[in-house]
Design goal:
By secondary structure, the protein is of the alpha/beta class. The chain is built from eleven helices and ten strands.
Length: 276
């Protein structure tokens, strides 16, 4: 089985660079789908309280019998929980659903910046880390201005910032700000949910290497140093999306994919999204 490279975070822990995401995997399918991902070799799973599938993820983990220290599990704090001052209870609930004593990474899912509740949430996250309920803490969908506020308000620098990144939306300003602060970038919707699979640089690289467009885009992220967790519920795709360690894109192919940048945003804009 292929060894997935790891990336060292600013707190000294290591994260497998390639993981498996479960957004929009229905609760009833999560156990089966995550079992498939673990079977092909994934050890890093990215879920969230708001995905509603932590119990299924937990059942798959329990059934797989893989030693806990070989797994890397991320979940996320939903906005309504931190706005209500329930950050600590929210992680305890997630742990119970996942059947775990700790997660590897706990993220603030969105800043929802119309008020500043995300700052006190960050302080609660710091306490959860100190208590050992999560090994690392980080943020998701934070713009550079939100990162600045967190750095002022807290003592722990977020380990990661998980943001929408794919060839059609690369958010270089956010990636740069992350790097300046020693924060690793995680790319969500790394495949642009399929929207770039017919773009010429992706198609020609796929033909050149005899691989799929999805495999090309996954390699592009890996070789650009980002952490990613593509999602699929189809066993053949789950397997091929993991089978990306026996070819390498050339610098020319990487640059051609870099040039696909356009305003291809799929999700909400973090500065304007204020769920309660
Ligand atoms: P993705 O870019 O991983 O695309 C997944 C979709 O691409 C699949 O549903 C399928 O339609 C298609 N696909 C996957 N493999 C394929 C293949 N080999 N061939 C053809 N089509 C294929 O999109 P995503 O699920 O939005 O993002 C991945 C993960 O990122 C999520 O599951 C979640 O863990 C995370 N995420 C986080 C946030 C956040 O706010 N933090 C938001 C969205 C997603």
């Amino acid at each position: 089985m292929a060894a997935v490279p790891t990336i060292t975070l600013n707190d000294g822990t290591e994260i497998p660079q390639l993981g498996f995401g479960v957004w929009q995997v229905p609760a009833n399918d999560a156990e089966k789908v995550v079992a498939e991902a673990l079977k092909v070799g994934h050890r890093h799973i990215d879920t969230a309280a708001v995905y509603g599938n932590e119990e299924g993820v937990g059942r798959a983990i329990a059934a797989a019998g893989i030693p806990r220290e070989e797994l890397y599990i991320t979940t996320k704090l939903w906005v309504s929980d931190f706005k209500a001052g329930n950050t600590k209870e929210a992680l305890r609930t997630s742990l119970q659903k996942l059947g775990l004593d700790y997660v590897d990474l706990y993220l603030i899912h969105w800043p929802s910046p119309a008020d500043e509740a995300y700052l006190s949430a960050w302080n609660a996250m710091e306490e959860l880390q100190a208590q050992g309920l999560t090994r690392s803490i980080g943020v998701s969908n934070f713009l550079p201005e939100h990162l600045e506020r967190v750095l002022e308000a807290g003592t722990v620098v977020p380990a990661v910032n998980q943001v929408e990144i794919h060839p059609a939306l690369q958010q270089r300003d956010i990636q740069q700000a992350n790097e300046q602060h020693g924060i690793k970038t995680q790319a969500w919707s790394p495949l642009a949910q399929g929207a770039v699979f017919r773009d010429e640089p992706v198609v020609s690289a796929a033909e050149a290497h005899g691989v799929s467009p999805a495999q090309v885009v996954i390699r592009w992220h890996l070789q650009r140093g980002r952490i990613l967790f593509p999602k699929s519920v189809t066993p053949g795709r789950i397997a091929s999306n993991f089978d990306v360690f026996d070819f390498e894109l050339t610098e020319e192919q990487l640059s051609a994919i870099d040039s696909l940048e356009r305003d291809g945003r799929l999700g909400s804009h973090p500065g304007e999204f204020n769920p309660s």
